[in-house]
Design brief:
heterodimer; A: alpha/beta; TIM Barrel; 4-stranded mixed beta sheet; 3-stranded parallel beta sheet; 10 helices; 40% helix; 11% strand; B: alpha/beta; 11 helices
């Protein structure tokens, strides 16, 4: 067997990235940021409100995590996800209420339309909604038709703006998956920050639009990733969040304000045996006196004004 | 095929009608040992292959058979010690294969509910009439073997059809363990007028999930169950909660696990003044009589369909 000659040609082999979405940048050489109140670390908490239909999208090349598993009808998975949006979420909101946490909620528009009661409970507490597609079947992926993707994004964003009464300037793609056109289409539809990329601990400009930034929406401390995918216990999850805080806090003294992001999933952290760990973790962070807790749009705005 | 099965109403876990269990208790606690029979050479199913290797796939077969030969007897002795009756999720063919197990449980006043005939006969592909025949067979089998009328259902291997819930109503079943949307019981929608409810079966704290999905140790699982209990007991003060421990003797009845599990029963039964230690049928009977009407009324209010 022999590969074609082109396999040993390297047309993008030069300094910098192999694409034009953003330039290379060493985080430790950037000008320092100062957060409001001169707090060292911005604490950004997000809670994903996901709707998984009982029928999966068989046209997409993959499924979002949390989607149906067994042959139809997968009542097991469908109802276990519903648990998050009716039981788990109210445990989480109670924790936020007690500690005065403001959070951002990536929200499937189908869920906002299904459960106006829940949307109202979140909105009246002053939390932020982030666009998160129509539902967990509405995926974006390389090679998809640009017009149908434009429609998908437009319908999801406009629907969520209508259901919540908020501007909705942030976006998280379902399953964090993008096509080659997603960033441009998001900017076109009024998105100002995107949460899909996992390559930085601070915001950075992304795509050809001048306003669009990538926010450090990390997968590394996500409840679903650590507690479900990696099977870690709650104490281990908590300790890693606190260790991350220690590191970021230390760096902030010489490099300026940092961001600690924690991504939550109602059907994971909202389980009865897990919820106390969330409370304990956030309580420790809030009581340090070093954190500025804010929604994604506020952090993005603050960062942008200092560029 | 339906994207939304519409089996129940959206019901936020917030300001629900207060449930007070008999004796003023805050938490209804039940244990569900799955006593199952898996066939060595089951007939093929169009949607699911029972065993990964060609028949005879002796390791997964004998792994489960261990429960009926060893684990069950350990678990039953332990439950005797703490005076906890089981609500058995029964592959009803166990009545024919291992009548000694069924007799021993029945003599202790344990409840039996239907978990199908064999855990290797899936609902996928069955006609409505075939599924009905299977359910009726399981009810008659338990009646004949124990004198008990089956009041609960958990589909074999959690395999369902679009008819399953309706068939339970038609067969005068009181509760379904098939849905995992809540930590409190909830009325289900059925065409036939019924008071069928969904019974919290706490799938996420199933020993199978702990050991074979999340890879936990027996000690971690015991700790999780205690924390789960603590939280549900706290919440039960606002409105009574249900905690189920779904078990498989082939998992929990192993020599290295039964000891840590004993600590869980010891812990929970030391809270008898606050906890109703009971069976699923007793919970269902009480709920249908005392809580059902309030639940219907409250869900109507929440979903804006008048009082």
């Amino acid at each position: 067997m022999t590969l074609p000659k082109s396999y040993l040609k390297y047309p993008k082999r030069k300094k910098g990235m192999d694409h034009s979405l953003y330039p290379y940048s060493n985080m430790f050489e950037r000008p320092p940021i100062t957060w409001p109140g001169r707090r060292n670390v911005a604490l950004w908490v997000t809670v994903a409100l996901e709707y998984f239909p009982l029928i999966s999208n068989t046209k997409a090349p993959f499924k979002a995590q949390g989607n149906m598993v067994t042959p139809y009808p997968d009542y097991r998975t469908y109802t276990a996800r519903e648990y998050g949006n009716r039981v788990g979420i109210f445990r989480i909101l109670k924790v936020f209420d007690k500690l005065g946490i403001k959070a951002s909620f990536p929200t499937n528009t189908a869920l906002a339309n299904r459960y106006p009661f829940l949307i109202n409970e979140i909105a009246k507490r002053g939390h932020e909604f982030i666009g998160h597609g129509t539902d967990m079947n509405a995926l974006h992926y390389g090679g998809m038709d640009i017009d149908s993707e434009r429609k998908q994004i437009k319908n999801a964003l406009n629907g969520l703006r209508k259901a919540t009464g908020q501007d909705v300037t942030g976006w998280l793609s379902p399953a964090r998956s993008e096509s080659e056109n997603t960033l441009a289409l998001l900017a076109e539809q009024g998105t100002e920050y995107v949460c899909d990329w996992v390559n930085d601990d601070m915001p950075y400009r992304i795509g050809s639009d001048k306003k669009l930034i990538a926010m450090p929406h990390t997968l590394e401390l996500e409840d679903r990733q650590l507690l479900v995918n990696l099977g870690q216990d709650e104490t281990t999850w908590k300790n890693q969040i606190l260790t991350a805080f220690d590191c970021l806090h230390r760096e902030s003294k010489t490099h300026g304000g940092r961001i600690l992001h924690i991504s939550l999933t109602p059907y994971v952290i909202g389980q009865a045996w897990r919820i106390k760990t969330l409370y304990d973790t956030l309580e420790i962070l809030m009581e340090t006196g070093w954190v500025w807790n804010a929604a994604g749009a506020e952090i993005a705005h603050e960062w942008r004004t200092q560029q | 095929m339906k994207a939304d099965p519409k089996l129940y109403d959206y019901w936020p876990y917030l300001n629900r009608p207060k449930i007070v269990w008999p004796g003023g208790k805050k938490l209804a606690f039940w244990v569900a040992p799955n006593i199952e029979f898996y066939e060595l050479d089951p007939p093929p199913n169009p949607k699911r292959t029972p065993w990964p290797r060609p028949t005879p796939d002796i390791v997964p077969y004998s792994y489960r058979d261990h429960g009926n030969r060893v684990g069950h007897w350990r678990l039953m002795e332990l439950m005797d010690k703490y005076d906890v009756r089981g609500s058995v999720s029964l592959s009803t063919a166990v009545c024919q294969h291992h009548p000694e197990i069924v007799e021993a449980c029945n003599a202790r006043g344990w409840e039996f509910f239907s978990h199908g005939i064999y855990n290797t006969r899936y609902t996928y592909g069955m006609s409505r009439a075939q599924e009905d025949e299977m359910i009726k067979d399981s009810i008659a089998t338990v009646k004949k073997a124990t004198g008990q009328r089956v009041r609960g259902y958990l589909a074999p291997a959690l395999t369902h059809s679009e008819h399953t819930i309706e068939l339970l109503a038609e067969n005068n079943i009181w509760y379904s363990c098939d849905l995992f949307q809540d930590d409190q019981p909830q009325p289900l929608h059925t065409k036939k007028k019924s008071k069928l409810i969904s019974m919290p079966y706490s799938l996420e704290v199933n020993d199978h999930y702990a050991f074979n999905v999340y890879g936990q140790s027996a000690g971690q699982y015991a700790d999780l169950l205690k924390r789960h209990f603590d939280q549900l007991l706290r919440e039960g003060e606002t409105s009574g909660t249900v905690m189920c421990i779904p078990l498989h003797a082939y998992l929990i009845g192993r020599a290295h696990r039964i000891g840590p599990f004993a600590e869980v029963l010891d812990y929970i039964t030391s809270h008898k003044d606050e906890v109703w230690i009971t069976t699923a049928a007793e919970i269902a009977e009480f709920y249908r009589k005392e809580c059902y009407a309030d639940a219907k009324k409250h869900t109507r209010q929440v979903n804006g369909e008048g009082g």
